[in-house]
Structure formats: structure tokens, C-alpha cells
Amino acid sequence: MRRLYDLVVPGGLVWVAALVCLRPGVLPDSALPFVRVYPYAVAMVGAVLGWYFNRSRVVYALLILAVADRSLVLFPQDPATGGDISRIVFHAVALLLPVNLAAYALLSERGLFSTRGLTRLIPIFGQVCVLGVLSFLRPRELAAMLQYQFVGVNLAAWTPISQAGLVAFAGGAILLVARFFLHRDAIGKGFAWALVAAFTTLQTIRAGWDSTPFLATAGLILVVALIETSYRMAYYDELTGLPGRRALNEALLTLGSRYAVGMVDIDHFKQFNDQYGHDVGDQVLRMVAAKLERVSGGGKGFRYGGEEFAVVFPGQSAKDVMPHLDSLRREVQASCFVLRGADRPKKKPDTPKAPSGPRKAVLVTVSIGMAEREENKRKPDQVIQAADQALYRAKDAGRNRVMT
After folding, report:
1. pTM of the model
2. Catalytic residue selected from 109, 238, 293, 307
3. Domains and CATH numbers, the chain
4. Is 307 a catalytic residue?
5. How far is 176 from 59, CA to CA, in rounded Å?
């Protein structure tokens, strides 16, 4: 459910808002100047943010959307003014737009003005040139190819998009959604919702909807995804996925006069890291973070730094949260790692073999110090310091325990 929520917010909300507000006749005439400026504002803001944060994928996607929009505007799908070229342009956009968005979403970042980055402009303008030449030399053959029917006509009668375009949109959406669930990439999620907005644009053209604001909405979704990515980089720890130190500092400022803080430290982590390697150490950090993410009692976990974490319990006292922190300690202790054998390959083979030789299970424990806000500890940093001192007492007392 959490991943489903992450998939829908905020891109899905932006798309729904566009469906509601950009329908013909919904906005008053006084809002029309803002609608006309809207695409230019999205393009300008997206280009500046993409350049500033070095996110070339977003800039190129905005360019792809702009090319598609200008093509649809120059060759409108109007029975009175549109002709064979207009139909070719429409079906070409329906096929190439999802393919390009999905392809550029999967590319790695290479910089906006680097040589390798600039070469990614070639396919965009190359497609325009090739289609222009074919439309002039072989318009009938090109139209037949773009509108080729794989199945019966009635199966696609509900949409003006050709069957090839439907396959491209469906394949791109499945690919991008699957990639999001595997990697939790906010910009990749933005590309998926931009694909939905692009499909909505082409689907509603024959109903008289203006294509430009909806394609601008696809760009806006990408800009919002870029902002979300930048926010997560600033406030979330990349390794564990937990909120980081900056997020903790801001969360402490919003608490009232009653709260408790637990400081969690992995026992003997340095020795563990030195003996078994940093890869295994990273797995331990992620395991502890996963336990903290599900801590009971209304607590919220944060990556404090190194092997140390913090858990904040708003509206709770130290006595209230003691059972929940002790439960967390026991859950970590109950989890252990079976280390990779020396003969075990790094990648899973096609025909796995049973491991040979003994396998070693590693026990992981944590020590926890806890403190609550009191009259002599009014400031959040004083509560953190008191919890840290309690953590050191827990370590001195033998580790793997909770102390106040």
C-alpha cells in the first residue's frame, strides 16, 4: 500500500487536477491568459531546474513533449482543415511519443551539455526529419504502416489512437511502473504519469480538448518529480530510505511539549564491518532501518549518522515507549544473516547448485538510549543529548539493552 501511495502521489493528483480543470468550458474566461502562459512557464521552469540539478532526462522529455505539441498544433485533427498529413502526424506522435518517453526515462544521466548528453538530441530531431521526408515521398505507405491493424477494428474503435500506438503506450506504462516498484525512482514515476497525460491528450483531441495544456501538464508532472527527487536527496538517506539528519532536525521543531526520543546504535558495527566487509555492513544497516520503519507506538525512525539511528515518539513519555523500543531491540536480535559462502557466485546462475561447506550465521544486536522532554530538558538538542548519554550507559552495561 505504501508503494501504491508513492506511485499515485503527486503525479496522479496533478493528472486528476488537469482532467477537472482543463476540460473545455470549466475555467472562466479570465483564466484563459494563464492557460496560454502555462506551457511556456512549465518549459522554462523545467529547463532551469533540469539544468541546475543536472537532470538531462527531464529536459529532453520536455523537448519531446514540445515537439509533439507543435506537430499537433501545426497539423490539427480537424475534418475541415486536416488532411492526410494531419492523420500521419497524429499517428506518428501516438507511436513515437510513448516510445521516446519510455526510452529517455531508462537512460542514465550524462549531463545536459556534455558530448554524450548532447548526442541524445540526435534521435529526437532525426525522427522529425525522417518522418518529414517519408510524408513527402511515401505518404500512403507511411500512413498504412502507422495505422496497421494487428487485430479486428472493433477492439480499438473506442480510441482514435492506432493499434501500434496503443501497444506503445501500454508497453511503456508497464515498463515504467515495473521499474518504479523495483527502484523507487521519483523521476521514473514522473515519466509514467507523463505517459498517462500524453495518452489523455491524444484520446481527448477528437472531443475538442486543447492538446497544448494537457501536454504541458505532462511536463509539469516531470517538473514536480524532479522537485520530489531533489527533496528526497536532501531529506532522506539513500542507503536505508529513512529520513535523514536534516529531516530529524525539522521534525523536532514541530513537536509539542511532550515527546520521547530513542537513540539506536548497532553493537560492534565497526568490528563487524571490518570483518565481513562493507557490503554486508550495508545490509545490516538496511535491515535495522526496515525494523525502525515499522516500529510500534507511533514512533518514526531517522538515520542519524553512521550506524546510529533515532526514533521520535510524539506525545509519549519514556515510560510509554519503553515496551516499543524493547520490542524493536528483540526484533533486531531475532534477525540474523547467513553470510555468502566463498564459492557462491555474485549473480544467480541459471542452474543453482546447493552450497558447499559451512555457512555462518551472524547475530546483530542494538543498544538503545531513551530520553523524554522535561523541565530541565526543554530544547530538542538537550533531549537528543540525554538519549545519547543513555545509549552510552546501555553500551557500558553490556549492550543489547534499552536504558533511560
Report:
1. 0.79
2. 307
3. 2-235 (no CATH), 245-340+359-403 (3.30.70.270)
4. yes
5. 18
